[in-house]
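ENTRY TYPE: protein
WANTED: fold as tokens:
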Amino acid sequence: MEPQNITSVPDFILLGLSDDPELQTPLFTMFFSIYLVAVLGNLLIILAISSDSNLHTPMYFFLSNLSLADIGFTSTTVPKMLNDIHTHHKIIPYESCLIQLSLVIFFACMDSLLLTAMAYDRFVAICHPLHYPIIMNPRFCGLLVLISFITSLLDSLLHCLVVSQLTFCTDVEIPSFFCDVPQLLSLACTVTSTTTVLVYFMIAIFGGVPVSLILFSYKRIVSSILKVPSSGGKYKAFSTCGSHLSVVCLFYGAGNGVYLSSIFSPSLRSGAVASVVYTVITPMLNPFIYSLRNRDIKKALQKILSRTVSL
């Protein structure tokens, strides 16, 4: 079959998670509930941090930006999926697919870089506590967020540029509920080895470098904590990193599952579950992980709730 130019492809078909008609209503109810919890939970985290002066510190500054990125991340995929389930119209135009892909890459990269900044914040706080106020000053923290934003935008534009050069045959069914790079690569008719290497090189750079920095930070953190003589001091130091480590493992574990499954079985929906965890479950769980393990966040949320009840 002769490949046709990408501009002649009017749209893609998102196969979603299941074709079973009996599962559509339960899926809609479940993901609508998850989406509401994710958005409201992250909004509460942002509100708690902004309203409590005790939380105006670098760690919570990064956390509020992470919550904002998580809202954008889950809003890029879930509303479209809910609309597809409700209307049974699973078609997404080519331009919309590129926009969705760009936003997914942007927010995923933003999450990754903010988690890296939070790891560096914990590294400085534990390994260089006397210099912490000087190093992690407001200007430097703002610069880290700005660098994260610009780098994420660059990553998004590069992926979009590469995908826009692909040509597709008549088979334009995406075995997922959103447009992502691995699925589009598997559908393209004219994918060269250079294109594939370039895409995975960008993934390795924009994903691998943050992971390496996080691992390096925690290697130094663990080394410093082990030198603390008292068990109480060790527990306190480890507890400040517990929430962040949980989010890092959840985010990168699910993200690796998406891309590894796309390599070994690109034509199947084997990565659908990992994609759900990666784009939907993780943004929902982040507020719970940070609030349940953090006394300061709990106190701030209790103040907000008490004010709401008194009104």
About this structure: The mean pLDDT is 83.
